[in-house]
Amino acid sequence: MHVNADLHIHSCFSMASSPKMVPENLIHNCVTKGISVLGSGDALHPEWQSMWADHLENNAGVLVIPTAEVEDQKRVHHLILMPDFEGFSQLRTMLIPFSRDILTGGRPHVHLQGSRIAEMVHSLGGMIGPAHAFTPWTSLFAYYDHINECYGGEKVDFLELGLSADTSYGEAIPDLYTIPFITNSDAHSPDPAKCGREFTRLSLNRYTTKGVLSSLKAGHIEMNVGFFPEAGKYNRTACTRCYKQYSLPEAKEFRWRCPKDRGVIKKGVHDRARELSFGTPVKRAPYLHMIPLGEIIRATLNTSSTTTKKCTHCYEQLISSLGNEIAILTTIPIQEIREIDRITADAIDSFRSNRISLQPGGGGRFGTFTFNSRDHAL
Predict the structure, then answer these.
(1) Is residue 97 part of a domain?
(2) Could you give phi then psi for residue 266, rounded to 5 degrees?
(3) Out of 108, 152, 213, 260, which could bridge 102 as a Cys pair, Cβ 3.0 to 4.6 Å?
(4) What is the pLDDT along the chain (378 residues), one digit of tens a residue?
């Protein structure tokens, strides 16, 4: 059985998250997107645990996996998966002496080393790995060159790539040869352009929480699906104030200060991954680059966001007529889409055929894209 899993999201209790991040909206979004396995997010938060209680069994058949993200004493973020919510209740008790916001924040700061957190998680039968591992803020490779510098002798069960990286960014890093790669949305909003924008396709023997964890442990990754890395907001080395991009030698020459406005220059994921990639690339599951349907519609309609009335109307019309978003983007014949909306169908055809131009993001600003249609530019 193959399932699409988004294992890293947040709740309405996380900083900078939408108040609409509640179980009902998240389950509905999974059906719309074509996600069948969803990480609960923020499972250390007691009230969020309670809010999920009535939705673990749902009419949509979405399997909810207890998950949470924590920040350690070095500000590295870790994604944690547990067989049940009780495991997070026990972990919360263990972490309370080391955290001031574990009862109030969706993503708590824990004043412990990553290795100690991993030891606690493993003692409870859980899994742990670095979240958005290459991002220049709050990630493993923002602070360390080697994975054991963070986790010591504890097993790293998986590594999350993040929006600014794909599989190719980690396949030549020797430390990661035996670690499964996953990718997730890290969504703070239930907007379809955010939640489920990246996901991992797993091969399962059992459609249960333990089945999902067993699949990850065995490395049964069928495919990673997500952004073109260039679309991520930290892909290239750039100023965090004006977003001007720099080569790595230029950034070093300017001592990581933008000569234009004195803003901080942040090393991009592209450059950071190249620094670490001194090994021979190993074969991984394929990575399918995907642009959220809402973003495709926004680009074709030339609107300011995916939430405008025009975008929302077009999106809902396509979903109600053709099914879930992932199917529309990947498998439904273009002619069927064209019968609903010709312009969007042409854009999806361009996307599927890799007739696309990318302008990389960096410094905190997302990259942009344009379609190269056979007949005209969109």
Answers:
(1) yes
(2) -105, 130
(3) 108
(4) 999 999 999 999 999 999 999 999 999 999 999 999 999 999 999 999 999 999 999 999 999 999 999 999 999 999 999 999 999 999 999 999 999 999 999 999 999 999 999 999 999 999 999 999 999 999 999 999 999 999 999 999 999 999 999 999 999 999 999 999 999 999 999 998 999 999 999 999 999 999 999 999 999 999 999 999 999 999 999 999 999 999 999 999 999 999 999 999 999 999 999 999 999 999 999 999 999 999 999 999 999 899 999 999 999 999 999 999 999 999 999 999 999 999 999 999 998 999 999 999 999 999 999 988 554 333
Distance of alpha carbon 66 from alpha carbon 41, whole angstroms: 7
H and E: helices and strands count for the chain: 14, 15
Tally of structural domains, the chain: 1
CATH code of 142's domain: 3.20.20.140
* 367 part of a folded domain: no
Q: Which two tokens stand for residue 132?
A: 């958005």
Q: Which residues form the domain of 186? A: 2-228
Between CA 45 and CA 69 the distance in angstroms is 11
In a domain, 322, yes or no: no
Total-model pTM: 0.95
Which residues does 87 contact at the CB level (< 8 Å), separation at least 6? Answer: 66, 124, 125, 126
